[in-house]
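Researcher: Next entry in the queue.
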Amino acid sequence: MRRTTKKKEHYVNNADFLAAIVKYKDKVEIAEKQGLPKPRVNNYIGGCFLKIATHLSYRPNFINYMYKDDMVCDGIENCIQYIDNFDPAKSKNPFAYFTQIVYYAFLRRIAKEKRQMEIRDKIIEKSGYQEVMHVDGEQSSEYNAIKARIETSQRYN
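Model: Structure for this entry, 157 residues:
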């Protein structure tokens, strides 16, 4: 008995995605010539952006972040922002192009959240977290967690 292997379907079909983007760019060009506002991205292209961002967020280097939804939203926003920069004459692979856009949007969100955490920790440290985190003469678990994080960050800085 011979086993037939079924080819795994990709979640975004690159050929269909490219055709949709070319069609969208044609609509944008027509709208510019007629002095009309730029047309909206259709549901298929938007769905592809969502699938790319969502699937990329499942990668091991992005899976455990609390703000994963923000990362996905940033990725989609950047894809829409930079859709006009994709040139079908130069590349026939919009999937790779937009995956890179989403990837770097994720990295920017992680850096932004890290900066926010550092600012928050410094504010708590300077405001006297010992007084804030005491509960009936005992230190709370939040106090111990914040203290450990501050001490760890000070060692690496």
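Model: The radius of gyration is 23 Å.
Researcher: Noted, moving on.
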